[in-house]
Amino acid sequence: MTDSTAPAAAAAAPKPYSPGLEGVVAAETALGYVDGEAGQLLYRGYRIGDLVEHGTYPSVANLLWTGDWDPRHHLPTSAVPESVLVALRALPRTAKPMDALRTAVSVWGATQELAWPPTPEQARALTAFSPSALAAFARLRVGREPVAPDPELDLVPGFLYQLNGERADDATARALDAYFIVGAEHGLNASTFAARVITSTRSDIASAVTGAIGALKGPLHGGAPSEVVEQIHEVTSPADAERWVRETLARGDRLMGFGHRVYRAYDPRAKALRKVAESMAHKPEWLELAIAVEDVALRVLAEKHPDRPLKTNVEFYAAPVLMGVGLTPDLFPATFALARHAGWTAHVIEQASANRIIRPDAIYTGPAERDLPA
Ligand code: ACO
Questions:
Q1: CATH number of 76-222+333-353: 3.40.1260.10, 3.40.50.300, 3.90.1170.40, 1.10.580.10?
Q2: pLDDT, tens digit, for every residue of 232-264?
Q3: Is 227 part of the annotated catalytic residue set?
Q4: Which among 32, 42, 44 is positioned nearest to 69, based on CA atoms?
Q5: Ligand 1 test: best mutation among 48, 179, 260, most atoms within 8 Å of CB?
Q6: Is the pTM of this model over 0.85?
Q7: pLDDT per position as a tens digit, 90-109
Q8: Which CATH superfamily is 224-324 part of?
Q9: Is residue 254 within 6 Å of ligand 1 at its C-beta?
Q10: Which of 6, 17, 87, 94 is the most exposed place for a label (fewest CB within 10 A)?
């Protein structure tokens, strides 16, 4: 520091501190728009419900990357490089799928020429790779060999094929595709912000997504659909829902799948996924139970918190969709990470297009200048 008056000047005009950066505007984005009061989610202006109805995950990802809407955009999964397979084989079979996916993306990055600035082609390549890597690990950990991609299949049916070794029926693939669409993007959440921070140093897209997966792994961010599954299993019948909801709240526990930091209205993603869950070929048996629990929960939460709207969030109906397509709950967080690849990589491209290194200030709270002990 060359100006010895600078600390005094800073102390005279302290900058506001917002823990968790709440309320701080840290980026401009043309990608996702969330209106929590109205219960609205738009990707580049298009309503999430319309995108689920008329789009596929590759078409939505392409929209986020390029701004172009092409409902026929095709993106198959891609082959897993040998060095990634070596790394996945070396992991303990008990490793968490999120750890395996984070490792795979990091190793993949080391196999690629990822020039600056990041491009839609890089985003496409990474988004096509990750489902194959997660499917490979899911098989390796139970002693089965990975399945090569089928280039005819789009990304989501391709992922299910590589996971199960056989093609999923259309309704099942469509249900998971809807989940991928609603999970693709959600503004400046913690993992997306992490990806933008890493990109702002001119690091590469694989490093940004590796960091984003690390951020998403935390239980405060990674979502609660597996906990929804556990809770619904505690309800014995639709008639038992009222007892269960009241006892759970009386214990001071939270109802998983309700409430949201941003949404005060019914989460539009939950609305889209409820439609999908109800039309699925293989509905989990407890979908009827879940609907009964939702009815009671909304009524009782409104009674208990008349001033604080607590509505259904995306996780509540993500649970039956993910169960219905045959995923085990321990794969739910990593599957969410696959879906969020489109948003992360779109933000990486957007950050790079008007880049400034992200470097906020901190208020120093340590000791004043002093001498080392003699
Ligand atoms: N069940 C029961 N009570 C709830 C719930 C819930 N699901 N959510 C909030 N409340 C109550 C709180 O106990 C609190 O009551 P109090 O004022 O009497 O103490 C009040 O509502 C406000 O709660 P906050 O924690 O301040 O709300 P916040 O906006 O910070 O929390 C959160 C949002 C974390 C999602 C919360 O609603 C929750 O824990 N929900 C359950 C877990 C869940 O579904 N997570 C997935 C969220 S969606 C996503 O991450 C993609």
A1: 1.10.580.10
A2: 999 999 999 999 999 999 999 999 999 998 899
A3: no
A4: 44
A5: 260
A6: yes
A7: 999 999 999 999 999 999 99
A8: Cytochrome P450-Terp, domain 2 (1.10.230.10)
A9: yes
A10: 94
